[in-house]
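thread: overnight batch results

M.L. [08:02]
morning all. the overnight job finished for the chain we discussed friday. pasting input first so we're all looking at the same thing
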Amino acid sequence: MTLERDIERHLILKVKAVGGEVRKVSWPGHAGAPDRIVLFTGRLAEASCFVELKRPGKAPTLAQFREHRRLRVAGFGVVWFDSVDAVDRWLHTLVALRDDEQWQPPEGEVDADDPRGR
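M.L. [08:03]
and the structure it wrote out:
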């Protein structure tokens, strides 16, 4: 059975493999805040974001969704994953975009109502 820590280890390994960094974040007295921040440089810098990790089949709590929305409204990216496959799909998309010579960073606001930030 896959645990949240297994997804976390996979995220760290895969992000580092494409040149990014993953940091655990602590939010004393701030319930619902994301677990991690993923940082990229170069063409992927725009994809740097906060990450919430959940056990397979579990979704963030209502308090976490509210905090994710607040962060998105403030202009930050937030995603959440409940499987290693979801991590892989996300990174595959980012790397494909990075390697596409025609790609330009998106303009405009993030859809703050999208609970997955996708």
